[in-house]
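[Automated response] Your request has been received and processed.

Submitted sequence:
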Amino acid sequence: MGPPLKCAAATKRLVTRHYLDGRYVRHYGKTAWVTSGAPVELLKALGFFVLYPENHGALCGARRAAEALCRESEAAGYSSDICSYARTDLGSLLSGRTPVGRLPRPDVLVCCTNICQTVLAWYRVLSDHFNAPLLVVDTPFLYAEAPPHAKAYVLAQIEAMVEPLERIAGRSLNQDRLKRTVKYSRDAAELWNRITEMGRRKPAPLTAFDQFIHMAPIVEMRGDSRTVDFYAAMLRELEERARLGIGAVQRERARLVWDNLPVWHQLRFLSEFFAEKGAAVVAATYTKAWGELAPLLQESQPFEAMADTYLHVLLNRGTGSKLDTIRALVKEFDADGVVFHSDRSCKPYSIGQMGQRDSVVRQDGIPALLLEADHNDPRSWSRSQNINRLEAFMEVVAR
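Generated structure:
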């Protein structure tokens, strides 16, 4: 592997400060727990400290704490078949254990159904546990282009959230602050787009594994000027690496695209495995999803922008749309193969992958691997089986 990114220390500081702020937020403000596809700009503009249980779950997975927490939730009766993010967070809730010390109690929960239906049941459990109000944004699934009534339906729901959120926050919504927050989200997303596009360079100055680590701010600190500043600095570092010909993988010989969530508990193993083979995983559908909708975030009409953006997230669109994304990434990043992470926990992301893999192989002539795992629960990872599959795949890719 090439030299590590210098911005790694800044990422760690940002995430640490975020959770530290949450530890003391009860002294100065209100807290909202939200799903990753929720219109967070509205909450940020009202002064809420925003916590993403899914991101907390990912952090637990990366720090190898998720398995014990999943067992806690399963012992309480939650099925091992539900999302391991949900099991991780519910286990943390029940046990009081978390790598970040302590999570702030939510004053409100905001759930958007654009990523999966598990979140709705999950947030109902949280609402009951904390006796906190739950606000839901229901997004119609898009099998094709979004009809006007779908956007109007989502827009009406976001607008209806203002009054109860103002009441909980104890302040009125300032339109200028909302526009500024939307602009920060767009600016960060545009920078993130440019960062992920650096993978087109040869050699690539970063891999998808770097993106998985450094995507934390674009997920849980959207609408924040510090996030914009961080990604501007990260982009400058990557541009300098590209200018000097510094690759994330030494002697890059093959380029790959990753589909689905990362396998958090195997990030080091997978990144080192591919690097040893001279393969750079240069792009991922998951990381691309956090920047591709930046053009929709226009602050001049903030409510319409939020409705349009959160209606069109990747998991709220049909499998054909994801296949188009994969094909576009293969072409744009000059990739030699695709790794489909068949994620036991994330059914919405994994559905259709077998057909997508077959299309990539048969119609496009691109080698593709279906790697079976779970994004957070290491009990679904078979090291020997997956090493055999990875070795065989790389033999085909390296021909």
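Summary generated for your ticket: The mean pLDDT is 96. The CA atoms of residues 162 and 173 lie 8 Å apart.
If you did not submit this request, please reply to this message.
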